[in-house]
Design goal:
Blueprint (H helix, E strand, L loop, with lengths): L4 E4 L5 E6 L5 E6 L4 E5 L4 E6 L6 E7 L4 E6 L3 E6 L4 E7 L5 E6 L5 E6 L3 E6 L4 E7 L5 E6 L5 E6 L3 E6 L5 E6 L5 E7 L4 E15 L5 E12 L1 E4 L5 E6 L2 E6 L5 E5 L6 E6 L5 E6 L3 E6 L5
């Protein structure tokens, strides 16, 4: 197995990573409040986006417009033009740290969640707030839109997923999980299934038709997990302290366990062609594997 490419990326822990839709850039966010952009042809540093004053929690690309959206512990939502390399909009609405964000499949809606349990829905055409709901005080940890944007699925520092109707943000369904917290949520199979994990010892897959648990993939030990789905939906990366596992979505079978000695694995991202996996952690570095070298 070839060693990963390692980039000394930030001054503090890395909090999120994404590959741009054209696969030409890798974007990293950090507790140092900086966003940095890397050239995937050479893995060289390109430029930095500055504007947040506290740790960045999430970054997402609005692919249609080649815009980057970032949220922060400072409560702000910023929009960046990646080609012009500058901030173009700053949305204010949360009074507390933003801890989760998701964009709808058609890229017309944005959802954000805060440390204090507040969820906001935004229109990306008018950049206006459409709805706001205050849930119980547990932090919002994960968000995922339905394939047709008919509901928003919310994961918190609790054992239950909750679906909220859109656009009125009315609670529809509460789904019990085997986790103590729900750190990751994502829809797959054209919205027919949801993959989730958190504090526990498994990754679960639910059918959205009736919210029955289709499979529960057992993991090595009880700890706090995050999962990242590959764009081709064949693999899921399960990350936790000192470990990165690649598992088959269909069977749950362990494909590869990547050598990773760093504690505090906070972020991971697949390239859009599912060829590369980038992992960021508390060592301030980005570790990048070419998955073709692992076969």
């Amino acid at each position: 197995m070839k060693k990963p490419i390692v980039i000394q990326a930030h001054e503090q822990s890395i909090t999120d990573l994404i590959f741009t839709n054209d696969n030409k850039q890798l974007v990293s966010a950090s507790m140092d409040s900086a966003i940095r952009v890397w050239d995937t042809a050479t893995w060289a540093y390109k430029f930095e986006l500055d504007g947040h004053v506290k740790s960045i929690s999430k970054i997402i690309e609005k692919k249609d417009d080649k815009l980057l959206i970032s949220t922060s512990r400072d409560g702000s939502i910023k929009f960046w033009d990646l080609e012009a390399r500058k901030e173009i909009l700053n949305l204010k609405g949360h009074k507390n740290a933003i801890t989760a964000m998701a964009i709808s499949p058609e890229e017309t809606l944005l959802a954000t969640g805060s440390k204090t349990g507040e969820i906001k829905l935004w229109c990306l055409e008018t950049m206006e707030e459409l709805a706001s709901v205050q849930t119980k005080s547990e932090p919002i940890l994960s968000l995922s839109f339905a394939e047709n944007s008919s509901y928003l699925l919310v994961g918190k520092a609790s054992s239950r997923m909750v679906s909220w109707s859109i656009p009125v943000m009315k609670k529809e369904k509460t789904i019990k999980t085997p986790f103590q917290t729900i750190n990751s949520l994502c829809h797959l199979a054209k919205g027919k299934k949801v993959l989730a994990t958190g504090l526990g010892n498994s990754v679960g897959i639910w059918k959205t038709k009736d919210w029955s648990l289709e499979s529960n993939i057992k993991l090595p030990a009880k700890t706090s997990y995050r999962c990242i789905l590959a764009p081709n939906e064949k693999l899921v990366a399960v990350v936790y302290d000192h470990a990165v596992e690649l598992r088959a979505v269909k069977t749950g079978a362990l494909n590869k366990k990547l050598p990773f000695k760093v504690k505090g694995v906070n972020a991971a991202a697949f390239s859009e062609d599912s060829q590369f996996l980038a992992v960021g952690a508390s060592d301030k570095k980005i570790h990048i594997w070419n998955l073709e070298d692992l076969s």
